[in-house]
Design brief:
Immunoglobulin-like; single chain; eleven-stranded mixed beta sheet; alpha+beta; disordered C terminus; eight-stranded mixed beta sheet
Length: 760
Amino acid sequence: MHQNATTQIAVFPKPGPAASATLHGLGAGFALVVWDAGTQDPPRHAVPSVDGVDAPRPHVTLSVATLWGGRRTLCLLRWRGPASGPGIVRVRDGDGRLLAETAGAVDLPDFDPTSLLDGLDAPTRLRVVRFILDLCRSAQALRTDPDFVAACRRLVLELSPRPSPLRPRTALTPALLLCEGTLSSEFGEIQAALVMTDEAIGPAPFEPLSGSAPPRQDRVPLHLVIDATLCEDRALVVLVGRRGLACRVLEPRRAELPSLLERATGRDGLPGPLRRHVSRCLADRGARDPAAAAAVRELQVLVPLAKRQLADPARPVGASLDLAVPTGGGGLFLAGWIHDPQGLATGLRILTPFGEERRLGAFEHRLPRPDVAQLYGLSAGERTGFVAFLAGAPEAAPALQVQGELVLASGDRITLVPPPRPQAADEARNAVLGAVPPSRVTPALLEQVLAPAVSALHAAHMASRRAPEVILFGRQVDRPVVSVIVPLYRNLDFLRFQLSAFATDPAMAEAELIFVLDSPEQRDELEHYLHGLHGLYGLPMTLVVQGANCGYSAANNAGVAVARGAALLFLNSDVIPDRPGWLPELLAALEADPSTGAVGPKLLFDDDSLQHAGLLFAQDFRGRWYNHHYHKGMPRDFAPANQPRAVPGVTGACLLARRAAFEAAGGFCEDYVIGDYEDSDLCLRIRSAGHEIRYVPGVELYHLERQSISRHAGYTRGAASEYNGWLHAGRWSTLMEQLMSREWTPDAPAAAGLQPRRAS
């Protein structure tokens, strides 16, 4: 016989008495050698050979007891067929003693499940069947091999000749059905589920779900999400458990089935475990099936769970989950309250719609809840409220509503169901910021709870924005010297005053005027309004309409994206010039020194007191850095405010920058929420790039401060300013400290060359 370089010729001692073995073909190059022997111990190591040549590894052996007291051994080997001769298979133990041999065979005989299982009790039959079925997990080629598939079907039907049905009950999507049947209550945990058609065998596409048995009943419900085509093929479903094996046949749908939403709102509904199971299956399929992704979202949106809380002052414990916001990336923000004067609770258990579990063992961040204090007759300062952030692994689909359980020391649980989270990422972000009163925000709460939730939701909102719409009014300036960018949000009251001031200023004819609307719901109103103002004043204008409210930074960056000027003036809509000619003067200050990257003017309140004479940075009693304005509230002609000089920064209400310096700084940072600290962040970026910033007191404009941001509920009702301040200080504390250690008098040396170490 010809042998290749790796083939080993077995040399054995003189063979002794051997059992007569039978050979079974399993397909795809696998064979099963089976023999019965006496009561001797099973072989610890079996080495099969074909015509004296060791069978290629791996080969696996199973030895089981027969009903008549002997042992049956199954040896699985790869079968390549004999090179010549009769093809005798011999099996020896590790010491070379012959255990069994077959009569010669050139071709493998068909698989015979009857002889294989004859003489074995039920548990032993299960072991043999599992031994063979495990092959389809380890050998991919076997799953579609017709001989192996046929062998497995005969083997399973030998144990279960009349399989019980699994009937379609719900059409989850056009391609997925929820099938239902029953299972013995003694079956126990399902360890594996296989699907057998006439052509293939493999793992079920989704794990089955079995319920718990009602009292004095021996059957439990069985649910399986399956591809509709498998039902039409009447495929077999084989369930493998620790103590048994069950076979079910998938029946084709015989009538119109209720949809998922119809089932969820019907008489029987979707019990909690089944709802989570269906949601998990749909979420797993959703990555490649849009209908499945839509179904799991629609279930959460259209059939939300009813809110549940325990708020009875007569009970010794009470609790509520008022807000539960999965934030993407696996994070979960929680806000609620707990009244537990006797210390009965040990923590909170959270279940997502997809079956994932989170636990909160301690309520570390507590807050006063006046409403709860009033309910239970407590002092107003009693800290019954809590917020928390739980990290975790990302889930297969967005979770809009979770379920909670307040876990008691006895192991008993109180179910808590919050309302669904706001669907839009920006609304969810604002809800998180609104869950903590600004006066209760601490550095630890910011870093451990608010920041991870807000940053993830804000990033998701910014990633979802659409490209803006650009509308032109009139013939645009050919080569604008300056692009004036005015972000607009809700408040349009001052626009006509600002435009009338521009229209009476000849210098504005050289400027490109760009309005960026950050409240797109006002698009039609503003377009109509600007048409009228353009007809009245003849000023060419550009309107950029954002797809959603993305905040001050994004609005200004969107304006820059369409701007053509070499200088960029960022101007609030509530800033009104006090006289013509202000823009050339401001531009001259910018161009006077090539090292200057940005300049800002004097800004006045409507009573002629100072609002801004340059930005500075200062620490509060806790050491936190904040923005401040030089000489705020002083008279208009206050002498120190009339000195042109370098300053740490200038306000974004009116900031003129070289385009090159703006782009070198990376533009406005869009990590800040809604609008705060972006201007000082830009100034610090410009300084980090090596440019100077100067205050120009000869240019005076009126600023009706914070007129637009005051209309943003997400800002005024929450902790956005505290979050932005924390973010700003974390990035720029080192540079702010360096800047404020210098003199900022008119004769002080420039500070543009400071190189900060930025915090991460």
